[in-house]
Amino acid sequence: MQTNLRPRRPAAPPSPGGDERAARRRAERRARWLWRIAGYVFFVGLWQFTSSFLVADFIVPPPAVILTEMWDIIASGQVWVHFGATLRTIAIGFAIAFVLGSATGLLMGRSRWWEAFLSDWVMATLTTPGLIFALVTAMIFGLGPTGPIVAVVVTSFSYVTVNVVEGVKAVPRDLTDMARSFGRGPAQILRHVYLPFLAPYFFTATRYGFSIAWKIATLAEVIVGTAGIGFMMRQQFQQFSMRGFLAWVLLFFAFALFLERVVLQRRMRHVLRWRPEVAR
Amino acid sequence: MTTVGTFRTLALSPPGRRVGSLLRHPRAARVLSWVGFVAAWQLVVPFLPTDLVPTPSEVAVFMWNELRMETVAPHTVYESFSLSFQRLGVGLFLAFAIGVPLGLLMGLRRWADWFLHDFVVVGLAMPSLVWALVAGMWFGFGDLAPVVTVTLAAVTFVVINVAEGVRNVPKELLDMSGAYGVSRYATIRHVIFPSLMPFFFAALRYGLANAWKGLVLAEVWASTEGAGWVIKFWYDAHRSQGIVGYALFFIIVAIFIERIVFGRLSRWVFRWRPSDDRRTPEPEATDRDEAVPAAVPAATPGRQ
Amino acid sequence: MATIKVTDLRKEFVTDTSTVVAIENVSFEVGGHEFVSVVGPSGCGKSTLLNILSGIESATRGTVDITEGDRQAKLGYVFQSARLLPWRSVIDNLLFVQSTRGPQVRARCERYLDMVQLAHTARQYPGQLSGGMQQRVGIARAFSIEPDLLLMDEPFSHLDAITARSLRRELHAMWQETRKTVLFVTHDVSEAVELSTRIIMLARGGRLVADLPVELPFPRDPASDAVALARADLLRRFESLDLLAT
Ligand SMILES: Nc1ncnc2c1ncn2[C@@H]1O[C@H](COP(=O)(O)OP(=O)(O)OP(=O)(O)O)[C@@H](O)[C@H]1O
Ligand SMILES: [Mg+2]
Question: Domain C1-74+185-246 belongs to what topology?
Fold first, then answer.
């Protein structure tokens, strides 16, 4: 008897040349896009089907209704007012957190003593649910924009700190020693050794901190906002308007994704262009 | 040699220097920071313009009373947390029941990956606040909204990790099993399943962290009991020591789960690993795409 | 005592950027109680050949028949790297590839572990062993299923000279005793001359350039003239391969 070790493909076509390979790649790309579009069609279809046949309109409004609602929000200018308010909260809060967090991170990265002194508190703020900060700041500062800003500062601060500490520890010792042995001063070492190495960590910090800032800002606005996306979400929630709620959520999503993907990643690629894997 | 040297300097140094060198030790810094922080908090609060900031002693008294089941809230801390844990358990079970098959499909079939990928990424990035509010609007007050929130908040983490795990099953071990004619069942049980374990762990970790945040929010807005709801209760009652006290309970529970439960479990599951990396089964599964890391809390679960 | 019949074998790896021919037009037949060494420079397709024989890879063209009397030939494969399941203990790794269970199977596994001098590690995990120890577990695993055809991919190259020599003796004794067929990949020319009854030489690009019988009686004394001459001859051919390739 023979073992069935015969090649599974007995006669293969002659080895594909460059053209065929390119063709295969194109075919794969086409398949990928087709499936992707099929995915969108399927989900929108499912949504439409659910809202027209399975449940009432106010529970799952049809996609078209949401789209018109989104368009209304944009056309009426509301979107700018509220996104503006939220963005302001985030920008102010995150700027403060970034400065404080970087300084703290540098301190903790350079000195074991300060690391031991501060790390428990940084970890504590990292593990506390954001809701707690939102509620406490809400109680202390009451209605208005201050509470959300403080909540953003406290939460994104620890993210920045943790990443900067990590970055400082990753700066190769031999490079700083080299720079020192050539008589470079601390400012030059900071500028030419530390900053290039810290840049990716700053960006990670910014990305995490930023996505956290978005979430905490909307959460705080849901509780005490007088304007902003979270405030609008709460309004729609209280009016039980699924339509308005989903429209705001989708707008929020589009905006957050745009900021993170397009704006932040562009910057990142520019700053990190010296790294081979980025330059590709 | 070195011990003798140290001994001599210690013995000969004046008391002042000895204290100084002790203080320079990192452990001293830690103690100092705790003592300093609590003392500063206690001392500063009376001078604040608001009476809404609790002092540490108030918080401690509150927590002690809660633990002795003396509370003005309608449920004790034990009742609230155990209810929340039940909801969490049911929701997580559903998330795995849905997420594991989907993840397997996405890992094994490219078309499924292309079909679902964008939606999974959106799910990962969705704030759990949104899930909580949507579920609240759909299901009203009760158990259903929190459970659904937990499932929605965790399921995408399960999907993405299982899919990544399937793609990472070591091919050379599969080849080896094939060359020796090992049965399909034994291959799944002894090769595929163990190599998926780190990814299951990651799914459980991140999924749990995200689900917990969502659960608390859902309980705030769409429930009348549970740990989250009690926090809202203290907020409405203007008892800030209640909020801070519950936050500390949360942190204690989180540390307990992370250190004791996950730590023990992973040490047992990964007992075959060389001893130093047994405790950190981090596959970094979620870093495959650019999109995912932003959605995954850095190294630290437990944050809205 | 398996019979291998390889006809007109060709294997190419197609990647996005290039096509690599790993085996080109290779035909040979191995019958019965033979010890065949496959030698050739690094990257010439030796591992690929074994992978095709074991069914891990499929050939682009050509056929492979492995027959063993009237039943399925059992293959034991010692891979170039150990390929142990890191989450199973050493003895469990051996049990994993057995087709039957039972106390005598277990005893057999323990016997082969003892042969590679690793009986004391049976309960340990592979991660706790050194690289060479892991490789020896891989050898014990291949022996433990008592295969008809033994495929070995540079099994001794990670080991120190003493261990390698004792395992070589062990392998030789087992081959003589059980009359198995062995296909043995190596780039150590002395090893090939010491053990084989036949040497197949591959050149870069996977072409078969020589198929030489080694008709020297066992045991072969490495210091004897005949063995030294054979080694010198093989070495000369090996070096001329490089000249051809460049
Ligand atoms: N999976 C694969 N995909 C693409 N190319 C491969 C693959 N496996 C092997 N090759 C190529 O096939 C050729 C032969 O590889 P092979 O592993 O058989 O070499 P080898 O003779 O065993 O070398 P060595 O002595 O270093 O182990 C090499 O050029 C290698 O790059
Ligand atoms: Mg090889």
Answer: Rossmann fold (3.40.50)
